């Protein structure tokens, strides 16, 4: 196995274990919260899996027209990958 394949497998395993850990902390009340608010769940799923990927692709398409970003294809790949990395928002009141 090459180093690139090993790093890719390690990242995939890390993401899988992180999501599994979040799932272990979910309670029945969390599930019922979304069942009772189906519209909110639908809006969140549409935003994550439809709107944000389209916006990221459109944004990176416009980056190629700027001379600074023409030689950096890795920057456009980074912007496209941002849409697949959701970030957990925290309330400032919850932070210690």
Describe the structure using short key phrases.
flat, 71% helix, 2 domains, mainly alpha, 96 residues
Structural account:
By secondary structure, the protein is mainly α. The chain has 4 helices and no strands. α3 (38-63) runs antiparallel to α4.
Order of helices and strands: HHHH
Q: How many strands? A: 0
The largest pleated sheet is described as: none
Structural class: mainly alpha
Number of helices: 4
Tell me the radius of gyration.
18 Å
Q: What shape does the CA trace take?
A: flat
Tell me, rounded to a whole number, the average pLDDT.
76
Secondary-structure blueprint:
Layout: H1 3-25, H2 28-36, H3 38-63, H4 73-82
Helix pairs in contact: 3-4
Entry summary:
By secondary structure, this protein is mainly α.
